[in-house]
Design goal:
Elements lengths: L1 E6 L6 H10 L4 E3 H9 L6 H7 L4 E2 L9 E2 L1 H10 L3 H26 L4 E5 L14 E6 L2 H10 L5 H9 L4 H7 L2 E4 L4 H16 L1
Parallel strand pairs: 1-5, 1-6, 2-5, 6-7
Antiparallel strand pairs: 3-4
Helix pairs in contact: 2-5
The structure holds dephospho coenzyme A and adenosine-5'-triphosphate.
Protein backbone atom coordinates (compact mmCIF):
# COMPACT_ATOMS: atom_id res chain seq x y z
CA UNK A 1 0.00 0.00 0.00
CA UNK A 2 1.24 3.46 -0.87
CA UNK A 3 0.63 6.65 1.06
CA UNK A 4 -0.08 10.09 -0.40
CA UNK A 5 0.74 12.88 2.06
CA UNK A 6 -1.55 15.82 1.28
CA UNK A 7 -0.77 19.21 2.73
CA UNK A 8 -1.08 22.94 2.13
CA UNK A 9 -1.15 26.18 4.07
CA UNK A 10 -4.26 27.30 5.88
CA UNK A 11 -7.13 28.04 3.51
CA UNK A 12 -5.29 26.72 0.45
CA UNK A 13 -7.97 24.12 -0.31
CA UNK A 14 -6.51 20.97 1.27
CA UNK A 15 -9.85 19.72 2.62
CA UNK A 16 -11.54 20.37 -0.72
CA UNK A 17 -8.84 18.41 -2.58
CA UNK A 18 -9.01 15.62 0.03
CA UNK A 19 -12.75 15.37 -0.75
CA UNK A 20 -11.93 14.98 -4.44
CA UNK A 21 -9.60 12.07 -3.65
CA UNK A 22 -12.31 10.56 -1.45
CA UNK A 23 -14.83 10.74 -4.28
CA UNK A 24 -12.27 9.02 -6.53
CA UNK A 25 -12.38 6.09 -4.09
CA UNK A 26 -9.30 6.77 -1.95
CA UNK A 27 -9.57 6.35 1.83
CA UNK A 28 -8.64 9.69 3.43
CA UNK A 29 -7.40 10.39 6.94
CA UNK A 30 -8.30 13.97 7.89
CA UNK A 31 -5.99 15.21 10.69
CA UNK A 32 -8.01 18.37 11.42
CA UNK A 33 -11.16 16.29 11.81
CA UNK A 34 -9.34 13.90 14.14
CA UNK A 35 -8.22 16.89 16.26
CA UNK A 36 -11.84 18.04 16.42
CA UNK A 37 -12.97 14.54 17.47
CA UNK A 38 -10.33 14.40 20.22
CA UNK A 39 -11.57 17.81 21.46
CA UNK A 40 -15.27 16.93 21.01
CA UNK A 41 -17.75 15.45 23.52
CA UNK A 42 -15.98 12.70 25.50
CA UNK A 43 -12.83 13.12 23.37
CA UNK A 44 -9.55 11.74 24.69
CA UNK A 45 -7.77 15.11 24.71
CA UNK A 46 -10.49 17.01 26.59
CA UNK A 47 -9.12 16.42 30.11
CA UNK A 48 -5.53 17.41 29.31
CA UNK A 49 -6.56 20.51 27.33
CA UNK A 50 -8.98 21.62 30.05
CA UNK A 51 -6.16 21.41 32.61
CA UNK A 52 -4.10 23.67 30.34
CA UNK A 53 -6.94 26.11 29.49
CA UNK A 54 -9.71 25.75 32.10
CA UNK A 55 -11.85 28.40 30.37
CA UNK A 56 -12.10 26.19 27.27
CA UNK A 57 -13.95 23.41 29.10
CA UNK A 58 -17.53 23.03 27.98
CA UNK A 59 -19.36 20.75 30.42
CA UNK A 60 -21.36 18.02 28.75
CA UNK A 61 -25.13 17.88 28.93
CA UNK A 62 -26.60 15.34 31.39
CA UNK A 63 -26.86 11.98 29.65
CA UNK A 64 -24.63 13.21 26.80
CA UNK A 65 -21.26 11.93 25.61
CA UNK A 66 -19.31 14.04 28.10
CA UNK A 67 -17.34 17.27 28.34
CA UNK A 68 -15.83 18.92 25.31
CA UNK A 69 -13.52 21.78 24.36
CA UNK A 70 -14.91 25.09 23.18
CA UNK A 71 -12.70 25.58 20.12
CA UNK A 72 -13.37 29.32 19.85
CA UNK A 73 -12.25 29.77 23.46
CA UNK A 74 -9.19 27.59 22.77
CA UNK A 75 -8.34 29.58 19.65
CA UNK A 76 -8.59 32.83 21.63
CA UNK A 77 -6.31 31.40 24.33
CA UNK A 78 -3.78 30.22 21.73
CA UNK A 79 -3.74 33.68 20.22
CA UNK A 80 -3.24 35.55 23.49
CA UNK A 81 -0.58 33.18 24.86
CA UNK A 82 2.20 32.45 22.39
CA UNK A 83 3.54 29.50 24.39
CA UNK A 84 0.26 27.58 24.35
CA UNK A 85 0.22 26.14 20.84
CA UNK A 86 3.36 24.07 21.44
CA UNK A 87 1.80 22.63 24.62
CA UNK A 88 -1.40 21.89 22.74
CA UNK A 89 0.54 20.19 19.97
CA UNK A 90 2.41 18.09 22.55
CA UNK A 91 -0.95 16.77 23.79
CA UNK A 92 -2.60 16.30 20.41
CA UNK A 93 0.08 15.15 17.98
CA UNK A 94 0.85 11.79 19.65
CA UNK A 95 -2.91 11.07 19.73
CA UNK A 96 -3.38 12.03 16.08
CA UNK A 97 -0.34 9.91 15.18
CA UNK A 98 -1.85 6.89 16.99
CA UNK A 99 -5.19 7.30 15.16
CA UNK A 100 -3.40 7.64 11.84
CA UNK A 101 -1.47 4.45 12.52
CA UNK A 102 -4.75 2.60 13.18
CA UNK A 103 -6.27 4.03 9.99
CA UNK A 104 -3.27 2.90 7.94
CA UNK A 105 -3.34 -0.58 9.46
CA UNK A 106 -7.06 -0.93 8.62
CA UNK A 107 -6.44 0.23 5.03
CA UNK A 108 -3.57 -2.24 4.69
CA UNK A 109 -5.82 -5.06 5.88
CA UNK A 110 -8.47 -3.98 3.36
CA UNK A 111 -5.75 -4.11 0.67
CA UNK A 112 -6.08 -0.59 -0.66
CA UNK A 113 -3.37 0.27 -3.19
CA UNK A 114 -3.28 3.99 -2.32
CA UNK A 115 -4.48 6.02 0.65
CA UNK A 116 -4.38 9.74 1.43
CA UNK A 117 -3.36 11.33 4.71
CA UNK A 118 -4.36 14.99 4.94
CA UNK A 119 -1.84 16.58 7.34
CA UNK A 120 -1.59 20.38 7.68
CA UNK A 121 1.84 20.04 9.34
CA UNK A 122 3.15 17.27 7.05
CA UNK A 123 6.70 18.64 6.64
CA UNK A 124 6.80 20.35 10.05
CA UNK A 125 6.18 17.07 11.90
CA UNK A 126 8.26 14.83 9.60
CA UNK A 127 5.15 12.85 8.60
CA UNK A 128 6.30 13.26 4.97
CA UNK A 129 9.00 10.65 5.61
CA UNK A 130 6.33 7.94 5.83
CA UNK A 131 4.80 8.95 2.48
CA UNK A 132 5.39 7.55 -0.98
CA UNK A 133 4.17 10.74 -2.66
CA UNK A 134 3.75 14.21 -1.20
CA UNK A 135 1.21 16.61 -2.69
CA UNK A 136 0.87 20.26 -1.76
CA UNK A 137 -2.24 22.32 -2.49
CA UNK A 138 -1.23 25.88 -3.31
CA UNK A 139 -2.82 29.16 -4.35
CA UNK A 140 -1.51 32.74 -4.53
CA UNK A 141 -1.17 34.45 -1.14
CA UNK A 142 -3.94 36.97 -1.93
CA UNK A 143 -6.35 34.11 -2.71
CA UNK A 144 -5.37 32.34 0.51
CA UNK A 145 -6.01 35.47 2.59
CA UNK A 146 -9.36 36.07 0.86
CA UNK A 147 -10.45 32.49 1.59
CA UNK A 148 -9.44 32.68 5.25
CA UNK A 149 -11.20 36.04 5.65
CA UNK A 150 -14.40 34.50 4.35
CA UNK A 151 -14.35 31.88 7.09
CA UNK A 152 -16.26 32.88 10.19
CA UNK A 153 -14.59 33.08 13.54
CA UNK A 154 -10.99 33.67 12.51
CA UNK A 155 -9.54 37.12 11.98
CA UNK A 156 -6.70 37.68 9.56
CA UNK A 157 -4.30 38.45 12.43
CA UNK A 158 -5.22 35.14 14.07
CA UNK A 159 -4.75 33.30 10.81
CA UNK A 160 -1.35 34.97 10.30
CA UNK A 161 -0.11 33.54 13.61
CA UNK A 162 -1.00 29.98 12.65
CA UNK A 163 0.40 30.49 9.16
CA UNK A 164 3.65 31.66 10.79
CA UNK A 165 4.00 28.19 12.37
CA UNK A 166 3.69 26.55 8.98
CA UNK A 167 6.54 25.96 6.54
CA UNK A 168 6.14 28.73 3.92
CA UNK A 169 4.16 27.84 0.80
CA UNK A 170 7.19 28.29 -1.46
CA UNK A 171 9.19 25.82 0.65
CA UNK A 172 6.31 23.33 0.62
CA UNK A 173 6.13 23.53 -3.17
CA UNK A 174 9.87 22.94 -3.36
CA UNK A 175 9.71 19.89 -1.09
CA UNK A 176 6.54 18.27 -2.43
CA UNK A 177 6.58 15.73 -5.25
CA UNK A 178 3.49 17.32 -6.79
CA UNK A 179 1.71 20.67 -6.62
CA UNK A 180 -2.05 21.03 -7.09
CA UNK A 181 -2.87 24.62 -7.98
CA UNK A 182 -6.08 25.74 -6.34
CA UNK A 183 -6.02 29.39 -7.39
CA UNK A 184 -8.55 28.95 -10.19
CA UNK A 185 -11.95 27.23 -10.22
CA UNK A 186 -12.78 24.03 -8.37
CA UNK A 187 -13.38 22.42 -11.77
CA UNK A 188 -9.79 23.20 -12.68
CA UNK A 189 -8.56 21.80 -9.35
CA UNK A 190 -10.67 18.65 -9.85
CA UNK A 191 -9.13 18.17 -13.28
CA UNK A 192 -5.62 18.19 -11.79
CA UNK A 193 -6.69 15.65 -9.15
CA UNK A 194 -8.27 13.43 -11.81
CA UNK A 195 -5.09 13.58 -13.89
CA UNK A 196 -2.98 12.54 -10.90
CA UNK A 197 -5.38 9.73 -9.96
CA UNK A 198 -5.24 8.40 -13.54
CA UNK A 199 -1.46 8.53 -13.47
CA UNK A 200 -1.28 6.61 -10.17
CA UNK A 201 -3.94 4.03 -10.86
CA UNK A 202 -3.46 3.58 -14.59
C1 LIG B 1 -5.47 26.09 16.98
C2 LIG B 1 -6.87 25.48 16.97
C3 LIG B 1 -7.48 25.57 18.38
C4 LIG B 1 -7.74 26.27 15.99
O1 LIG B 1 -8.98 25.65 15.84
P1 LIG B 1 -9.94 26.06 14.61
O2 LIG B 1 -11.23 25.34 14.80
O3 LIG B 1 -9.98 27.53 14.50
O4 LIG B 1 -9.20 25.57 13.28
P2 LIG B 1 -8.99 24.10 12.68
O5 LIG B 1 -8.71 23.12 13.77
O6 LIG B 1 -10.14 23.78 11.78
O7 LIG B 1 -7.65 24.25 11.84
C5 LIG B 1 -7.65 25.00 10.63
C6 LIG B 1 -6.27 25.14 10.08
O8 LIG B 1 -5.44 25.84 11.02
C7 LIG B 1 -4.11 25.45 10.81
N1 LIG B 1 -3.54 24.91 12.08
C8 LIG B 1 -4.17 24.22 13.07
N2 LIG B 1 -3.32 23.91 14.05
C9 LIG B 1 -2.13 24.40 13.69
C10 LIG B 1 -0.84 24.41 14.26
N3 LIG B 1 -0.62 23.84 15.44
N4 LIG B 1 0.16 25.01 13.58
C11 LIG B 1 -0.06 25.58 12.37
N5 LIG B 1 -1.25 25.61 11.77
C12 LIG B 1 -2.26 25.04 12.42
C13 LIG B 1 -4.12 24.37 9.73
O9 LIG B 1 -3.91 24.93 8.47
C14 LIG B 1 -5.53 23.84 9.83
O10 LIG B 1 -5.91 23.20 8.65
C15 LIG B 1 -6.84 23.98 16.55
O11 LIG B 1 -6.52 23.87 15.19
C16 LIG B 1 -5.89 23.12 17.35
O12 LIG B 1 -6.24 22.64 18.41
N6 LIG B 1 -4.65 22.94 16.82
C17 LIG B 1 -3.61 22.18 17.51
C18 LIG B 1 -3.46 20.81 16.90
C19 LIG B 1 -2.71 20.82 15.60
O13 LIG B 1 -1.50 20.99 15.57
N7 LIG B 1 -3.45 20.63 14.50
C20 LIG B 1 -2.86 20.56 13.19
C21 LIG B 1 -3.15 19.24 12.55
S1 LIG B 1 -2.44 17.84 13.36
N1 LIG C 1 -10.16 25.88 -6.85
C1 LIG C 1 -10.36 25.64 -5.55
N2 LIG C 1 -9.79 24.56 -4.98
C2 LIG C 1 -9.98 24.34 -3.65
N3 LIG C 1 -10.70 25.16 -2.82
C3 LIG C 1 -11.30 26.23 -3.35
C4 LIG C 1 -11.14 26.51 -4.73
N4 LIG C 1 -11.81 27.63 -4.99
C5 LIG C 1 -12.37 28.03 -3.82
N5 LIG C 1 -12.05 27.19 -2.81
C6 LIG C 1 -12.53 27.41 -1.42
O1 LIG C 1 -11.44 27.72 -0.56
C7 LIG C 1 -11.85 27.56 0.80
C8 LIG C 1 -10.76 26.87 1.60
O2 LIG C 1 -10.71 25.51 1.21
P1 LIG C 1 -10.47 24.32 2.28
O3 LIG C 1 -11.35 24.45 3.46
O4 LIG C 1 -10.50 23.08 1.44
O5 LIG C 1 -8.96 24.68 2.71
P2 LIG C 1 -7.99 24.04 3.76
O6 LIG C 1 -6.64 24.10 3.15
O7 LIG C 1 -8.50 22.74 4.21
O8 LIG C 1 -8.09 25.10 4.91
P3 LIG C 1 -7.65 24.99 6.46
O9 LIG C 1 -6.24 24.52 6.50
O10 LIG C 1 -7.77 26.38 6.89
O11 LIG C 1 -8.62 24.06 7.12
C9 LIG C 1 -13.15 26.74 0.76
O12 LIG C 1 -14.21 27.62 1.03
C10 LIG C 1 -13.20 26.25 -0.70
O13 LIG C 1 -14.53 26.06 -1.12
Amino acid sequence: MKIIGLTGGMGMGKTTVAGMFRRAGFPVFDSDREVHRLQGPGGRAVGAIARLVPDALRPGAPGGKGDSIDRSALRRAVISDGSLIAKLEAILHPMVFASRKKFLAACRRARFAWVVIDVPLLFETGADRACDLTVVVSAPRTTQIRRIARRRGMSLADAERLIARQVPDREKRRRADRVIRSGLSKTDTALQVRRLVRELCG
